[in-house]
Amino acid sequence: MKIATASYPLDVLPDWAGYAHKLTAWVTEAAGNGAELLVFPEYGAMELATLAGLEVAGDLEASLHAVADRLEEADALHAQLAAMHGVHILAASGPATDDLPEGVHRPVNRARFFAPSGARGVQDKQIMTRFEAEVWDVVPGGPLQIFDTSLGKIGVLICYDSEFPLLGRALAEADILLVPSVTEALSGYSRVRIGAQARALENQCVTVMSSVVGQAAWSPAVDTNTGAGGIFGPPDRGFPDTGVIALGELNTPGWVYGEVDLGAVAEVRRNGIVLNRRDWAQQSGRADPVPVMPMV
Question: What is the pTM assigned to this prediction?
Answer without folding.
Answer: 0.97
